[in-house]
């Protein structure tokens, strides 16, 4: 066979090989997309935003590397409190690297926590405008989490972080939505025990039936690793709600094991509840009683009652 | 009287000699200097600590991400450049040194020569990626240990419960040296194998280093646009016949490098199973055989 014919045959073989592999590659690509191993191709808008050079790099199989740079730029913008720029750069970053919770969390966190706080407290805008801006950035952050969750199905971190945002007393909490977010995190089957507890706390905040809650608390507390102060305090307050005791201190002693531990845990719960917004019926009564027994007056600086008053005043000033 | 051994192609010993010679030849060209640059990049990525954000779970985790991202990015870049340039150098260098004439004058099948030459480049790519992988894994293991310590301290200070700290530790270690990361390095290697075998085909058409290098990079970039080409070909409406034909030409003649972009999502934290690797492994083997066969078809009667 002449060299020219062999070259022609080479072209035919290359084309035939190409046609042969086409369906196999389509199937692998489709499977990878389905499993979240392969991101969607870059949109034209993103290519324009990241510029020609970065776009070429990103197209050469280095998307994550470009995402690292855009994230670095976003951090610079965050340091300068240039929030619209932070938003733009985080949008670009997540478009380049949509898998994995990190960038979604960072973007949402910058918007819902950092930007909203800055607009509320440091922007120098008139109070109403500042409040409206803070609200707008909280919404942006929530939306970012929602998109992150949609892009990372099966991930437990983003729904739980979203649930934490929705439960945040300083960021217009939405308890019912928080319960849904935590349920989603738990439903992945990968969430660690503290997320199960957080779901439970969210349900408590949303006003779930105390009887059902108490049954659930008891089953959670059956596991040694779950015997954390908040859960013990929740058991106390639920028991109090269902059967108000004549002696709250005795109930506390039964749950916590010692008066000292009961005072420490219930006291912290009482103070932190300014922001935690958990059920707290009977907690103040027990703290007062236990403090009186230890000779601590409610006006004393050591008193949890006094501490809560002081924190309440400080938080009122913040708002 | 014993008869001389038949001059059968694909003799492993013969291929091994050519491959080792090619490997030594490339090493003598001081290509391993780039490992110094890799070490510098690794060091630079290790110095980044962009966050001081008062969140225990973010304490230092950005450093781990930057080490993974920069290292794998640099590995991709170096392996592609090395795959194209080293392959582009092979034939012209042998012609220039006249070693090609010496080899081909001997009873060495041309297929063995090609397989051996490509084998040498692949060996070089493997050795380079192995060294880079060891460096990256070592730095990541060390750094993730430090990050975990910092996070635990921050979490304890913030009063996190034990199980929450433990889950944070496990999540952070997932950003360190994992099997998924080794899978990503394997994918980088597989991509560079396909890049090299494509460059081998091009080098037979041209025997000019510059032409092969430039077209090699063009082929690589086009190979990353496969998604667009396939979309044009498979699209049912809104696409003209010419566009569809162009899409088909690109989809059939150019390798699909997008398959290997799984690396991007692995850096981001996606998990990979052995079953997932079988697709790219199979496709790489297919490309390797196809490109070698096509190269042999063009090379077997080529006159020098």
From TrEMBL, chain A:
Region described as Disordered: spans on this chain: 300-319
Superkingdom classification of source: Bacteria
Protein name: DUF4034 domain-containing protein
Automatic annotation (TrEMBL), chain B:
Superkingdom assignment: Bacteria
Keyword annotations from UniProtKB, A to Z: Membrane, Transmembrane, Transmembrane helix
TM regions (residue ranges): 31-50, 70-91, 111-132, 199-222, 242-260, 280-299
Transport keyword on record: no
PANTHER family per UniProt: ABC TRANSPORTER PERMEASE (PTHR43471), SLL1107 PROTEIN (PTHR43471:SF10)
Protein name: ABC transporter permease
Source organism of this protein record: Luteolibacter soli
